[in-house]
Amino acid sequence: MGSEPNLCFMTLTLIHTADVHRLTFNTLREQLAPEAALTHLVRPDWLAQAQAGISEALRDEVGAAIDAAEGAVLCSCTSLGPIAEAFGAIRIDQPMMRTAAQTGGRVLIVYCLRSTEAPSLSLLERELQAEGNMTPAAPLFLGQHWPLFETGDLQGFATALSQDIRHVAGQGQYSAIVLAQASMAGAAAALQDLPCPVLTSPELALRAALSGAI
Fold first, then answer.
1. CA distance 181 to 200
2. What is the C-alpha to C-alpha distance for residues 178 and 199, in angstroms, rounded to an integer?
3. Does residue 87 sit in the same domain as residue 122?
4. How many CA atoms lie within 13 A of 137 on its CB side?
5. Are residues 166 and 133 in the same domain?
6. What domain range includes position 109?
7. Which residue has the higher pLDDT, 5 or 30?
8. Which residue among 128, 151, 178, 189 is the one 20 to 30 A from 106 at the CA level?
9. How far from 130 is each of 50, 97, 102, 125, 154, CA to CA, in Å?
């Protein structure tokens, strides 16, 4: 697929807490805007630190990296999203949450890390309120499957997520399903037959960042 005329060709720095996202975004870049230059900063230790809460030291370290980065900055880690936003970076999940809020009904938000819970739910609530959508989101925690991702079993992780999400989706009516973490995006392919959109963050975020829409 060639580059798209509405995307600007720029330098973008991406902050990741898992190396697998480097390939994800490089692949998307080739599809959307091959002329764009991506620089990747991979810091899994930041996610490990965030599990105990966001310390002042972690905040300062992330902030310093964002300040030193070349071009715009996109943070692909939802746990670090509020810090990234505070220092002027783009949160990977903001375009996705905005899209979900615009569906006008109840949103099922799925996540696998407790450190992701508060920032993701808070951001979705903010976008829902901005759209005048007063329907509370429905949270679904699937942390029991996270070890599959940590051991590199990405297909097993996606399959386990999709099975549980399908079961829950069949028990309620939702206007959208949000896969809160970029690492969960692989589960979406097996859920395309559901009656509501299943939203993932990487492509929506990269499109928004390259077009200057955030």
1. 8
2. 5
3. no
4. 30
5. yes
6. 94-200
7. 30
8. 189
9. 28, 11, 9, 9, 35
What are the backbone angles phi and psi of residue 144, rounded to the nearest 5°?
Answer: -65, -20
Span 63-107, pLDDT tens digits: 999 999 988 999 999 999 999 999 999 999 999 999 999 999 999
Q: Count the domains in the chain.
A: 2
Residue 121, in any domain of the structure:
yes
pTM: 0.87
Burial degree of 24 (CB within 10 A; 0-12, 13-18, 19+): buried
Residues 47 and 124 in one domain: no
**Domain presence at residue 5:** no
Model pLDDT, residue 2: 42
Short-list 65, 117, 126, CA closest to 94? 126
Same structural domain for residues 110 and 87? no
CATH number at residue 146: 3.40.50.1860
Q: How many angstroms separate the CA atoms of 38 and 26, rounded?
A: 7
Query: Has residue 5 got a pLDDT over 50?
Result: no
- In 3D, which of 8, 21, 41, 72 has the Cα closest to residue 202? 21
Listed residue (183, 187, 200, 202) closest to 47, CA to CA: 183
Rg value, the chain, Cα: 16
Q: Are residues 121 and 195 in the same domain?
A: yes
Length of the chain as a residue count: 214
Query: What local confidence, expressed as pLDDT, does residue 210 receive?
Result: 87
169 and 177 in contact (C-beta within 8 Å)? yes
In a domain, 50, yes or no: yes
